[in-house]
Predict the 3D structure of the following.
Amino acid sequence: MSDQRYAVTIVHGDSVKQYSEQFQTQASYAAPWKAVLQKAHKQATVSCQCPGTGCRLLAVRHMSDNDSFHLSRYPRTGAEHALDCVYYSPDPDKSGLGSYSKGVVE
């Protein structure tokens, strides 16, 4: 199972900052990490620094019910991440199910 969290880079205007796995996950950094994500939400480009290939872009999501922020991969980009990256997922186009109509195979 993919469970490694890597550093992320956030580009906001001319500012480029990298945030370590520890900064993203340790409880002592919870408030500053939320502030970073809140500022980046819909305003910055966020990318995962795992050793995968491709852009590895991430989206900052806002959960309004509890006013929290988190990162998620863009749809259909999971295969760009390293196999051990928390954002990795297999490429659905290479699953062998491509010749089936949607809803036929469950």
Notes: Residues 30-40 form the longest helix (11 residues). Helices lie at 21-25, 30-40. Residues 8-20+27-94 form one domain.
